Amino acid sequence: MFKQIKRLGGDSLLFALMNVGTKLIAFLMLPVYTHYLSPGEMGIMENIDAISSILTFVIIFGTDSALAYFFYSTDNKELKERYVQTVLSFRLYLASLFLIVFLLFAKPLSFLLLGMSGYEKLFYLTGIILVFEAITTVILTYFRFQFKSLKVVIYTVLQLGAVAVISFLLLKYFSYNVDAIFWARFYSLILISIALFSTLSKLLRIKIEKDLLKKLLVYGAPLVPASLAFWVITFSNRIFLTKFESLDSVGIYGIAMKIGMVITLLTSSVQMAWRPYSMSIREKPDADRIYAGIFYIIFIIGMLGITMVAQLSPLILKMMMINPEYIEARNYIAFLSMSSFLSFYYLIISVGLFLKEKTGAISKYVGISAVISVILNIVLIPLFSIWGAVAALIISYLFVNVIIFKKSQEVYYIPVKPGKMIIVYLATLISIGMITFLYNNPQLNAILHVVPWFLLLGSIYLTGIWKAIFDKK
């Protein structure tokens, strides 16, 4: 038992370090990107990445969860490898199909997504990148399932590090524009693929075992709609911003989102630990009270973290980015940080649905939220520009949290007081709004920055939810 616990702890620490390391590298590259690229070029990258992300969901097609299930359902080493080979071949075929589509239709895609031609080669590169990612991600998953966690961490960090270094060199010394990022991704995947070649040669098969693929898809396909719905909520606003505003708006929005997502350094680690932990205590007689306390604690830390992002991010933006074209991004960072927290928090408060095996409700309501998101983007962006996209994102994720929490409570009641959380949530929205207003009006006395903090801390104190942190029971 101790050996298993030690392994779990060691692997968790390695993946946490990898998560922090990769996000830190991406964060430190923002000054480079914003120095050499205009907001319009950043908008081009954001839109192509948005399409790439949805195609990645389709290529995976739920086979990640399915492979995990069937890989550990047998002790037969040969059968394990056959499952991996089947997933690898399936993803490779799908990625190759999308590459052909990009090769044939790059010009109309450029007009559709970017509003202009001349960027066809970025779609060619994106198609090739999807093929290489289809290969490398399966191999790294295979290593992870074999508990070769150190290999996963090394290859992942090296790949992102190579993207950063090559991007910088191409931008600084070879006068590349937005092409640099895509070429850097391509070169880094080539290098990683060469490093993984011995494993690839063992796993790659041209023929797909249909019986194994059928089992994998029956298990994994139902998970695809939820993934696509989350894509709609998270990324579709870039497309609407392009249509109703400009690529410059997309670039500014993208930078604000990347900085706002700094809060995921906290939430992603909790997310990895939450599911096994929440399942491990479900038989405890006071499990409901433990869940309630954790709900409150994570919520309080999240609201404080979002307010801290609001307080510090404009200063960080000013220090990191000398290009004045991006200064507008400071208005949206805290609110996008709020949306990032909400996109994580629903996983915490949906614990009842997982305990009672009612997870189908999650896909249903995320799908409804995606429809709401599209409608809100169409209505709000023409009226309020980037603020419309921000509002659509927050409202959509807020709907997911409220409705999923309600449904989870119906099947497994947890003694929390939603009214208290609503008060603190509203206080947080007002606080980050006040901080944003103060940064946009520097002539006002700087001492006023303490007012939002008094408001937030006062709401936490008066509602009493802070007591969960000190509940020794």
Automatic annotation (TrEMBL):
Keywords: Cell membrane, Membrane, Transmembrane, Transmembrane helix. The chain crosses the membrane at residues 12-30, 50-72, 92-116, 122-145, 152-174, 180-204, 216-240, 252-270, 290-312, 332-355, 362-380, 386-405, 421-439, 451-470. It is found in: Cell membrane. InterPro entries: Poly_Biosynth_Transport (IPR050833), Polysacc_synth (IPR002797). Its main location: membrane. The keyword Membrane applies. Pfam families: Polysacc_synt (PF01943). It is a multi-pass membrane protein. PANTHER family: O-ANTIGEN TRANSPORTER-RELATED, PST FAMILY PREDICTED COLANIC ACID TRANSPORTER. This is O-antigen/teichoic acid export membrane protein. The lineage of its organism: Bacteria, Bacillati, Bacillota, Bacilli, Bacillales.
